[in-house]
What does this fold into?
Amino acid sequence: MSTPGTRNLLLPVAATAILLAGCDSSVDGAATPSAPSTSTRTSSPASANPFSGMDPCALVDRLLAGKGFPKATPTVADSKRSCAAQKPNVGTTDGADVGIALQNGQLYTDNINNPSTARRGDVNGRPSIEQPEPLGSPGQCQVGMAVAPNSRALVLVTGGSDTAVSCQTAEDLATKLEPLLPPA
It folds into this structure.
């Protein structure tokens, strides 16, 4: 059982680990460290970012409207590309943390922490991967969806200790988010 203090720290810690992970992997194999890039990156125009003009906090607020969550705020790990909202525990009812990350230049197949439990699928026809307990903690679930040409949208839910409930919530939110995203 988590306390309100630890719950408030859980999503930023989870988001930091997931959003900044330095591995390349696929569901079909084990995670391997990323090789350093030998090419020089050049900045690309904003139009190259499929999420240009999209506000992840506004998306979180839209998805969670009427569900008792406060307004979303940018995450510490990636404040320009991700936002989260936290609903505190109330009595015996577990709270929940919900985050969305819109990550240009990262594939939905990147950073699969536990390939043996990850599940390939689709959200409204868009390729996706669901990761139950992406950091090994019960009650966490992440759904990553493909966004063309080489980007992804992530939905991360942490709530209580029931991973199945968190995965169902993540799936439901991903289904609502998918039509709002640029093409896969």
Confidence is low (pLDDT under 50) at residues 1-26, 29-44. The domain at 50-180 is CATH 2.60.120 (Jelly Rolls).
